[in-house]
Amino acid sequence: MHFAGQETHFSRQSWLLRGACLALFMLLSACGFALRGVTPMPFERLYVGIPDNTQFGADVRRAVRAASPNTKLVDTPKEAQAILQQVSDSRTLREVSLNAQGRVESYELGINYTFRLIDAQGRALVPDTTLSIYREMPYDDQVVQAKQGQIDTLFKTMQRDLVSRLLRRITAPDVHKAFEAAQQGEDTGETPLFNPNAPQPQRVPTPWQTPSVTDPTNVR
User: Fold this and answer.
1) Could you tell me if 93 and 219 are in contact, meaning their C-beta atoms sit under 8 angstroms apart?
2) Are residues 197 and 79 in contact, defined by beta-carbon separation less than 8 angstroms?
3) d(CA 84, CA 117)
4) CA–CA separation, 68 vs 82, rounded Å?
5) Which one, of 197, 209, 204, 159, lies nearest residue 49 by Cα?
6) Is residue 158 within 8 Å of residue 150, measured between CB atoms?
7) CA end-to-end span of the chain, whole Å?
8) Can you tell me which family this protein belongs to (predicted)?
């Protein structure tokens, strides 16, 4: 009887533990948290042509290391099997609605980012691709400074979303196929070619200058 009681006690603890784990998982899912597995890239050495003194560049490198631990980030294109080139980036701020007095009620914030992924010979694994993210934000001209801070925060959130979308694109199955085909010398003659050693645009420490509602030249 004593041992049976112990078994019942341990069984009850086991079920409680399982229930707690399930509840925690459901809570994290409700908060938008998702457990992500490793997505290894087909190449062993990658050069990221995004300045590492920017938050965006640092976030991209961190995401690559987490998704593909066996892919080494190298310091120069000449060392790489694949090269991530930054083509252009911009932020926009646009009025989308006015009230009866003609004052702005909401703005649309936008990020447009263009990149390409090539192999060491300049063959496009991912041709020029533009990722666009837009968010709408209500506006009150009585609290301009507070709203400017909200704009800065919203752009940072959008930038994190951009990193996730960029990573999903460069780890997609078609990238694996394109790299394997390039390694085997398969060339249809239609693959775009780029200069793998082309200098990348130099950016100021902040990758984009955040548009300001206090400067009318930044608003369209």
Assistant:
1) yes
2) no
3) 5
4) 14
5) 197
6) no
7) 80
8) Belongs to the LptE lipoprotein family.
Q: Which residues contact 68 (CB under 8 A, 6 or more apart)?
A: 38, 39, 40, 41, 171
Cβ pair 124, 192 in contact under 8 A: yes
Amino acid at 40: P
- Nearest Cα to 111, choosing from 172, 154, 150, 61? 154
147: helix, coil or strand? helix
Q: Which two tokens stand for residue 68?
A: 């593909």
Of the candidates 220, 198, 166, the one whose C-alpha atom is nearest the C-alpha of residue 41 is 166
pLDDT digits (tens, 9 = 90+) for 187-219: 656 778 888 887 766 554 444 455 665 554 555
Q: Is 87 helix (H, G, I), strand (E, B) or coil?
A: strand
Q: How far is it, in rounded angstroms, from Cα 180 to Cα 186?
A: 9
Residues 133-150: tens digit of each pLDDT: 999 988 766 655 667 788
> What distances in angstroms separate CA 78 from CA 81, 119, 182, one per listed residue?
8, 11, 17
